[in-house]
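User: ok so my PI wants both of these folded by tonight, can you help

Assistant: No problem, let's get them done. Here's the first:
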Amino acid sequence: MNLSEEKTAMSDVTRIDTAGVQLRREAGSIDHFWNVLTDEYFTGEMIPGSRRVRVTEVVRRVRELGLDEGEVIVVYCSGPDCPQSTDAARKLADLGFENVLDYDGGLTAWKEEGHLVEATSAAGA
C-alpha cells in the first residue's frame, strides 16, 4: 500500500485516488479495471482501459472469467457520492479477493484531474 492507497477504518475496502490509479496504470499493475455502474446511472463514459461490469453482476462475472483471488481489481463508479464501487469492492472481498481497490473518486475525480474519458454506447460488459 502506498500513499495514494488507504484502507478505511470503517471497512475492509482499500481506497485508491486518481494519482494511485495513474501510477498503477502506467506500471501495468492493474489486472482488471471495472466501471461498476448499473444501467440506471451509466452515462456512456468510461475511463480508457476499463470495462463495464455492473455491480449487480460482479459475482457472476468473476465466476465466468475464472479470476485468481490474487489479481488486482480496481473498481470505480461516478464519484465519491456513489456507493456502487464500494459495494462492488466489498462483494469481491467477500469472495476472497485480496487486492481490490475502490477508486471512489471515480469518473468525477478522473475528469476533474484533466484526464480524458471514452464515450461508448455499449450498455453491456
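One down. Here's the second:
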Amino acid sequence: MLTQGDAQHLFIAEPDTLTPPELRGVDHFLAIGPNVEPDTGFRRAGAVISTADILRLVTVSGRRNVSLARLAGAQWPLAALGAGTPGALAGLLGQDPTQHWETLCWLADLTGLGGSATADSLLYQTGGDPETLLVLLAYLVESTGPAPDRRLSTWADLEKISVGVEAAVLRGCSTTASRAAFWAAMASASPSTPLTLDALVLAALLSEEDVDWESTIAAGFEELRRQWFAQSDDDGAVSLRSLGVLMDLRRLTERRLAALGRELGGGPARVPADLGFHAWSAYRYALSPHWPEYVRAITDAGVAAGAPEILAVSAEVLVEVAAATTGTTALSDATAELVSVATARFPQASFDLDIPEGARVMADRRIVLTILYELLENALEATGRGGRIVVSARAMGGDVLIDVRDSGPGLSNDIVRAAQAFRPGFSTHGDGRGAGLHVARRIAVTAGGDLELVSRAGGHPVFAGAHFCLVLPRATGASSYLPRK
C-alpha cells in the first residue's frame, strides 16, 4: 500500500516482493518489507529500509531523523533531494554565496559522497555555478571508485563528463563569435589574468592565420564579458575566474580553435545550378567543416533541393569535427527536421515519432543530425523507401535512449553477431555500402554515447525489421521531461 502525507511516501511490500516497483508520479519514497533489500550501485526513486536498518535506527540514540535521511539519501537520485535540475539546485544553494559551502556539505553527506572535502572540491571546480555543479554532482552520485574529491580531480579524463562540463560552462556562448572569444581567452593566458581584445586576437592568429579573427572576436568580446565565468575590471579588461573546470578545459583549446578556424575560413560556399545530390543526402555530412557555409548559402539563395560536393569529406574528418564540437540539442526538433526532409524526398514512407517535447541530449545538433540520418537512411533502404519507421526516446540513468525501428525484413539469421552491422564495408544493400553505420557508431562514442543493434529481426509485432538504439548523454535538467524505463 502507499500512504501520503506532507510529500512523504511509504511503500509497504508483501512478503514475496524483492524490489520496490516504479511508482508513476512519485518522485521518491521509502520501501519497507520483510524481503526487500537495497539495489546496491543503482540509485532509484525507492529507498529501501531493510530489517537490519530498522533495528539499527531503533538503537540510535538521538538524531534518528538524520540517520534515516542519510540512509535514504545514499540510495536516492539527486532529484529526490530537491537538486534534480539547475533551477532546483540554485534554490537550495540560495542567493548568499557564503551559504553554498554549508549546503554542499549537507548534500554530500546525505548522498553518501563524504562531507567538507567534497564540498571544497565542488566549489573549487565550479564556483557554485548551478549548471556546472549539477553535472559534476550527477557524475559523483552515478559513479564509483576513489574518494569523491579524487574523482573530481580527474573528471576531464572522461569524455562523457568532459562534454557535459563544457556544455554547461559555455551554455551562454550561443554564437560562433562568443565561442571564438572564449577559446582565444583560454589560449591567451591562464584564468585570473586580465585580457584585452588585442591579446585574444593574437592568440587566435597563432592557431590559424587565414581567418578574420579580429572582427569575429570583436563581435564576441562583449558577450564574453557577460558570461558567468568572466569578470571585468575598471579598465575594460576581461579575466576568467580561477575555476577548476576552466583549468581542465584548457587542454581542449587547440582543438576548439582549429575547429572554429575551419568553420570561419574559406568564404561562403557556392551552390551550383546542377546540385550534386538531394538535400536528404546532405545530412550525411552535417559534420563537414563546410556545413555552416552550405546552410548559409542555401538560405541566402532560397535553394533547398540539394548540396554542393564541397560537403563530401572522409569519415575521419567527420569524426574529428565531432570530437571538437560541443553543445546540447532539442531531440524532437532535430528529428522533426530530418523527417520533414525525408518525407518530402520519399513520400511513400511513413514515420511515427514518439519523442517528448523538451527532451535534450548533451551533443551538438550536427552530431545528432548525422547519426540519425544514417539510422533513418538505413531504415529507408530496408523498407524500399516505402515502409513504416518509428523513432522514440526514453531516459535511463544519465542517458537518453533513442530507438529506431522499421517494418522491413530485418537482417538475415546468418548474421551471428550484432556487431557485424557496424563493421566498415558490411552491408545488406549491395557492394560499396556499409560505411554509414560504422561511422555513426564512431561519432556516437566520440560524443560520449553508443550505438547498438538491439534485435536483427522479429523483435516487434509491427516493426519486425532491425531495431537500433542510439545512446547519448542526457542534457542537464532534461530528466523531468522524459519518461523513465
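The chain has four domains: 2-54, 80-158, 176-264, 323-481. The chain has a mean pLDDT of 78. Good luck tonight!
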